[in-house]
Amino acid sequence: MSIKLITFDLDDTLWDTAPVIVSAEAILRDWLADQAPRLGPVPVEHLFQIRQRLVDADPSLKHRISALRRRVLRHAMQDAGYAEDEAASLADRAFEVFLHARHQVEIFPEAQPALEILCQRYTLGVVTNGNADVRRLGIADFFTFALCAEDLGVGKPDSRPFLEAMRLGDAGAHESVHIGDHPGDDIAGAQKAGMKAIWYNPQGKPWAAEGKPDAEVASLAQLPALLLQLG
Q: What does the pLDDT look like over 18-32, one tens digit per residue?
């Protein structure tokens, strides 16, 4: 196999996502307490109910997480008594506060050196279900393209994001490898599209899903040598 295209997941593959989201949620709550006091301490259950109602009415929102969060915030504002226009404005501003905080990630120290090596030899792309933007993170130059479920309207493990990645990367399935942490979304999804899939598993977890990855790494620093072996 001659490898031409390498695609990467982002969240929990190039950085640890959980602490960033926890921090972003806290920053959002503080902003809302100051800027939307009528909202008060909204129970998480109420927000979840709004979210579920919106997804039930429009299932495509499941893959459009930015639009969904905006709508949840807008509906919560309206439920708290804000007029429609004011609720929409507050929701948009609140979302931007969250999105800025959501991008305060600490990229794994071995990620950038690995990307610098790989982009010299392969076409690199992003396939993500999240709403992180590589342009905001200063790593866009490594990637030829970035695909997110928000833009496509469909997310991993559906094969369509991977097929679109191969089209943009001008590569066949036998020339393409995807790297990610999620056994279903990343490994099974990529393999369903005919790609090879490398499981990023820094914690050394046992494989508990059906099938198996084509390879496994505990550190992104292992990728250049591994990909040469696969190729």
A: 999 999 999 999 999
Read off the DSSP letter of residue 38.
G
- Domain with 61, as residue range(s), is 18-102
Residue 99 has pLDDT above 90, yes or no: yes
Backbone torsions φ then ψ of 8, nearest 5 degrees = -120, 140
User: Confidence band (pLDDT; 50, 70, 90) for 42?
Assistant: confident
Residue among 176, 178, 175, 194 nearest 186 (CA): 178
Cβ neighbours of residue 31 closer than 8 Å, sequence gap 6 or more: 94, 97
Residues 110 and 216 in one domain: yes
When pLDDT is averaged across residues 208-230 and rounded to a whole number, the result is: 95
The verdict on 98 and 146 lying in the same domain is no
What is the C-alpha separation between 3 and 9, in angstroms, rounded?
Answer: 18
The pLDDT value recorded for residue 68 is 94
> Are 185 and 123 in the same domain?
yes
| Chosen domain end from 64, 81, 102 | 102
CATH code at 149?
A: 3.40.50.1000
In 3-state terms the chain splits into helix, strand, coil percentages (rounded to 5) of 55, 15, 35
Residues in the chain: 231
What is the per-residue pLDDT for 1? 64
Q: Which residues contact 151 (CB under 8 A, 6 or more apart)?
A: none
Which among 227, 11, 25 has a CA at the least distance from the CA of 115? Answer: 227
Q: Are residues 74 and 96 in the same domain?
A: yes
Is the whole-model pTM more than 0.90?
A: yes
